[in-house]
Structure formats: C-alpha cells, structure tokens
C-alpha cells in the first residue's frame, strides 16, 4: 500500500521547483532529487534555487534534498517526474532501485525522444508500470506565477481517480486549485501538442500575421487537438476544459514561451539550426512535432497545423509558402 | 429581386470604415452613410476617414458618400449596419424611406439598449424584416488589422445561406477570407457575450490575477457561452469555430479592447461611473451585461462569469469579493 504523504519530486528546473513549492504548503517532508549538487547545497544555504524560479522562497527544513536519484526513489512512494523529456532517459539510466510498486506522476510536457512515446506510455512500456499507477499533473500553469502565488488551476489525472484525489490533497492550497481527471492520455497529449501550436503561433507572428489570424489559428488548433486526441484515445472529454484549451491558450498567447520564441525566429527567416544555436536550447515542441506527426501517420486525423510545422522544421520547406497554403485550410 | 452589387454601409466608425475598405476591393460603387458631414467632405478631399482608422486609404471615386441616411437607403438593396448599438435607434428614427425588401446585415456587436434585443431581432420585431433577409457579419477581426491588410477571417451568416454567399463574394479579397453560416443568433450573441468576458478579463487583470487564471477564465467563458447560446437558439454548431471562440480570444486577449480596459479600471478600484468618465465613453459590454443577464433569467443557463460581472457593474458588489467567489465556480 502506497503512502501518499511520501512524495518526491524528480528534477531541478522551474516546474519542479514550483511543484516543490506547492507541496511545501501541505507536507512536512518532501523528497527532491536534482542533478546539480551545487544547486542542492545552494538551496540548503540560501533557500532559493540558484538557477530556476529563483524568486520562490523554499524551506530546506521540509526538504529531503539529494543529488542521488536512488536515495530518493528508495525512500518515497509517489514520484513526480518534472524534468525535460529530453533528459528523462539519462536520469532513468542511473536507477539501480526498482520502480515496482511506485506511483509515477508525470509533470513532463513532451515526448521521450528515444522512444517517441508520451511519458506515461514510456513508463508503462519500458518499466512495466501499470496504467493505474501512472498519473499526470497538467494544467494551464506558468511556473513563474506559482512563485508569485498567483491563483492557478491544475488537473491531476490518473485512471485510478482515487490516486489523483489523494495527490491533489497535497497539491492544492490558497493559490492552487485542483481538478481530478481520469484522462491520462488526453492530458499528456494535449500538453505535448500545445507546444507545437505555440511554435505555429510564433512562426505566424514572425511572418507578420496579426492578432486576427492568431485567434483563428488557436480556434483551429483546439479543433485539431480534439481530432488528434480522439484518434489516440477515444473517450468522453470536453476539449474546452482548462487542461486542454486553457493549456493551449496560456502557452499560445505567452510571449515568454520558448516554443513560441523558437517559431518566431523561424518565421523571421532563421534556419532551424541557427534558431536553436541562438536560443542555446531545443524547444520541447521541436521533438513533439516529429513524434506527433509520426504517430498521426497511422491515426490519420486531419492535422493541417502540425503538418505545416513539420514541413517547415523537418521538410526544409519555406515557412512563408507553407503558411500561405495553411491559411487556405483554416476557417 | 435584390441586387447584391448595390451595397451600402451605414456608419462612420472604425469597423464601418474597415468594411468599406473590404468592399472597395470588389465593387465600383459603394453607398456609405455617416452622420458627420465634416467627415464626408474630409474623405472626399483627403482619402482618409479623419476620425477612425485613419491609416486606411479610401477611394472616393468608388464611394457614394452621404450624410443623408434616406438617400442611401433609397438607392441600395443591401444595407450593412455598422454603428455602435447605442446609436442605432437614433439613426433609424431619421428614416423616412422604407426598409421593406431591403436585406439587412448587422456588423454591430451588441444589444440595442432601447429594446434589449440583438440587432437582428430588433430589425425583425420593430421593422418587420423577415429573418431570411437578416444577416450578420462577424468574426475575430480588429478593424485596425484590416487597415494594415493583415489576413483576417470573417463569417457571413444568414438563415438563407445563399444571401450570405452572395455578400461574401464582395467581402473576400487578398487579405479577407470568408465563411458562410446559417447561425444568425449564435454569431450575434457570441459577438455580444464576448464583450462581457473581455470585461471579466479586465477585472481579473486589474485585481492582480495572472495569465494562468486568464486562460482558465477564457476556457470557462467559452463553455459558458456555449450553454448560453444553446438556450437562446438550439442548433448544431461548433462553439470552437473562429466566429465564436476566435472572436472571444481576439477580444479577451487584446490589450486594446475598450471592454477589457473598462474592466481593468473596475478591478483597480474605479467605480463604474468614474471608469466611464475617465474613458469618456461607454464600453459595449456594459449594456451587454445587463441584457445578457436579464435574457438569461428566463433561460436559466449556468453563467457564473456573466453573473459576476453583473453583480459588480449593476449590483454594487466589490469586484474583489465577487471574483473570490467566482474562482470557486470555475475549473
């Protein structure tokens, strides 16, 4: 029997830090693994993450901070993964401890590049975690606003809804409201797809399209997302719930989104490679585009926006030409 | 038999000017009534509207400009009304010419204050225009971007879809795409309701809520809009089409929206009266809130956002308290 008060966060970035902050409102002890020993020591001394979300005050006396992932996995029942999907595999390879009987919540928004799978499916296929022990933490939420304690709504999903409810008790607080869902596939795919649509919004902006077009793009994107997810996992869901539409909007309208910034550079004429070099990082949506495109090849949902972004990022097509064709497929 | 090439625009504001510009791409002669004789003369001489959308170049040789509404109504079959709903009645009172056999398209986003009706219903009830001769021009469209010839998508609605198709031929151009719909009620109510949600977005911003909350608010707003319109006029429609969702987004995310600005002032502590004085105008959404609230009293759709805005604007309730309660009704 899992003890839901034994929660650990895996990851040292902004979103991991935000989740630790949320849990700190409710738990006396939280496990927290991060790769950087330097950051661990800094947090213990200075009560702030030196690299990410530095404005959030942390409480080291409540934190079991460690640079050893096996120490954390050994001692906690509920593991919240919040590292960029591109680094997940590297971290998991360090594991000597077993993940059997652990409950895994993914707060990762993206595709595991090595397997081309969303995180929940990756854990299921490669670590034999049953789906009832896999959950998702999603929602329209910039970590920066959690640091500022601005009201935010998260959705906690698990096919075993009781587990989602249990975790949600420790997540919600004065500034965090939670909703429970049993749609782990829809919530994870939505979180991944929205990054592609944010790239599309960036490309459009870079090409000189305005707010009128942006609103048409987002309105087409949510319909496309609905068709896409329906093919992946058919169930009753309202695509206009905050975890789907809200998440699309908070990213697609954010001028701080790295995916949107990446797209904007492409729209302005940068090559994919030079945009990545300039940003000194790879936007999540870049990988997501390839995976989403490939997954949909079999599913056959009508996805003109994903297809357009794919043609630009991977097909070496001119953004201007691709978007001119795209505008005729939107309405 | 109406001649669809005999089109006139009634109104001298930004949206009227934008529509004239669109029509100018396709028509040799366009009737255009505006109240201000000074503006008429200015446009004839200087090819720009002096007061609104001044950046748009106009072509006086294509325009039958007149300060006499009866001259225009007499000579044109298709009348596009594009004046603020608050002034519609004053203009209609000047009519000595009959509206019989005219086809009326409303490009007005709002409620006629004197009747509490959307424009189409107002013409139907007070001028005995049959619904098949009433249409709506709607869509996510800032007039300013039409002036800049940025790609925009409009929806032309009429229960007699053939008429919508006919008009759309003269509206679409290099930078305007059109879609035809038979949902005159849904498109008009959506255009009216979105102003209320823009006020709500402004209030939230004024109170200090952030982007995370804004996305939740918009995601709840579109679900509320769906419930509301379904009660008013039940038919098959996809609320995520651009004319509904896109229109909500282009307004709700616009920092230039007068409704959002009005809400922002209320959220920051201005009284309704002082906000209006400060803005030197009344935001359309102010009237819309009262009408929408009253119409819904009978219909009984669940509308927590409209109710909240109503309580603040008309019930003298504190915005802070009302929104704290509202946050518990959203998800």
UniProtKB/TrEMBL annotation, chains A, B:
Keywords noted in UniProt: Lipid biosynthesis, Lipid metabolism, NAD, Oxidoreductase, Phospholipid biosynthesis, Phospholipid metabolism
Reaction(s) the record says it catalyses: sn-glycerol 3-phosphate + NADP(+) = dihydroxyacetone phosphate + NADPH + H(+)
Keyword Transmembrane helix in record: no
Pfam family, one: NAD_Gly3P_dh_C
Recorded GO CC terms: cytosol
Keyword Oxidoreductase appears in the UniProt entry: yes
SUPFAM superfamilies the record matches: 6-phosphogluconate dehydrogenase C-terminal domain-like, NAD(P)-binding Rossmann-fold domains
The Glycerol-3-phosphate dehydrogenase NAD-dependent N-terminal domain, residue ranges: 6-163
Molecular function terms, GO-annotated: glycerol-3-phosphate dehydrogenase (NADP+) activity; NAD binding
Gene3D superfamilies found in the cross-reference section: N-(1-d-carboxylethyl)-l-norvaline Dehydrogenase, domain 2, NAD(P)-binding Rossmann-like Domain
Binding site for substrate: 109, 258-259
Classification via PANTHER family: GLYCEROL-3-PHOSPHATE DEHYDROGENASE (PTHR11728), GLYCEROL-3-PHOSPHATE DEHYDROGENASE [NAD(+)] 2, CHLOROPLASTIC (PTHR11728:SF1)
Family named by the database record: Belongs to the NAD-dependent glycerol-3-phosphate dehydrogenase family.
Protein name as catalogued: Glycerol-3-phosphate dehydrogenase
Species name: Tenacibaculum skagerrakense
Lineage summary: Bacteria, Pseudomonadati, Bacteroidota, Flavobacteriia, Flavobacteriales
